[in-house]
Design a protein that fits this description.
Length: 164
C-alpha cells in the first residue's frame, strides 16, 4: 500500500498537479484598498494587504489586478499611490470593465483576461476577491478563486499554495 501511495505522489509531483500558481490576481476594492468614497479611485490602500503584495514581489511572484474599476479610475489610483501599484504587471492586469456583461462575475470578463495571457492555464492563477459571486465566476472558468476575508487569511492561503 505504501509503495502505491509513494508512486502516486511521484506521479502527481511529476505532472505538476500540486504546482504553485504562476500569477496572483487581486481585486482592488475591499481587498487591496478600502471601499471607495464615490468614484473608484477614491479609496485608501490596505497596508497589511500591500505587505503581502510586496513580499510576493520580492520573491519574484507575478501579480496582476482584476477589478471592475474603470481604466480611468485605475490610472488615477496608480498615479495617486505609485509606490503601491508599481508591484503589478500593468499590461497583464484587467481593470477596464465598462459594460455590465464584461464585468466580474461574467464569463466574458475572465475570458478577456485569459486572452491576454495565452501562456497561462486558468489553474495557474490564484485570485483574491471579496465577493462570493466573483469567486464563483472565476472558479467556473477554472481560476483558483479565493474569498478575501482579511490579510491574515490571505497570507494563510498563500502559504498553503506554496507561495510564501
Amino acid at each position: 500500500m505504501f509503495k502505491k501511495l509513494a508512486l502516486l505522489g511521484m506521479l502527481i509531483s511529476a505532472t505538476g498537479a500540486f504546482a504553485a500558481p504562476l500569477v496572483v490576481a487581486w481585486d482592488i476594492h475591499q481587498v487591496l484598498c478600502s471601499k471607495p468614497d464615490g468614484q473608484g479611485y477614491k479609496c485608501t490602500p490596505n497596508e497589511e494587504t500591500f505587505k503581502l503584495v510586496e513580499e510576493l514581489h520580492s520573491m519574484g511572484v507575478r501579480q496582476v489586478v482584476l477589478s471592475n474599476i474603470s481604466s480611468r479610475s485605475y490610472e488615477k489610483l496608480s498615479e495617486r499611490y505609485p509606490e503601491h501599484f508599481s508591484y503589478f504587471d500593468r499590461a497583464g492586469s484587467l481593470a477596464d470593465a465598462h459594460f455590465l456583461l464584461t464585468r466580474k462575475p461574467h464569463g466574458r470578463y475572465y475570458n478577456k483576461f485569459m486572452k491576454r495571457h495565452p501562456e497561462l492555464d486558468p489553474q495557474d492563477i490564484l485570485f483574491f476577491d471579496d465577493k462570493p459571486e466573483n469567486i464563483k465566476g472565476a472558479r467556473a472558468f477554472g481560476i483558483d478563486g479565493q474569498l478575501f476575508l482579511n490579510p491574515n487569511q490571505a497570507r494563510n492561503v498563500l502559504k498553503n499554495k506554496g507561495l510564501l
